[in-house]
Amino acid sequence: MTDAVVRSLKAGDEVLISGTVYTARDMAHKRLCEAINTGQQLPFPLKGAIIYFCGPTPAPPGRPIGAAGPTTSSRMDPFSPTLIAAGLKAMLGKGYRNQQVRDALKKYCAVHLSTLGGAGALLAKRIKSAEIIAYDDLGPEAIRRLEVVDFPAIVAYDSFGSSVYK
User: What is the pTM of this model?
Assistant: First the structure.
């Protein structure tokens, strides 16, 4: 995602995401922030990236991934400002974000997207491939590179400070 794309998105817009998305939850976020803070190389480029707060279930036969529903976004609040400052452009989850995250979205031109909680099996149908790329010791919380087509989301917090929750 580019700044121009981010600035074109307004709270309440419905979007369909196609392309590369990375999964990461609490422990992976902690490791990413530790890597940033100690100058280590990250397992994927954050600049322009989208992180999906998701810990999918194992893939059934013939599918690239199991159920892949969103995790509660506020669990990533302690880590998100650091990742946004490092170039992350969008996060995808469900629920509210704290003031520090909302301030970082405005300062660094990023957005938070929400998708359907409780619909992990349905959302998995939009994921065409999934590959663990880092922290495989975390099991379901390992970082995966997903290729998605028409993955549905709503702009929950835009880069101008507006929110669907107001």
Answer: 0.95
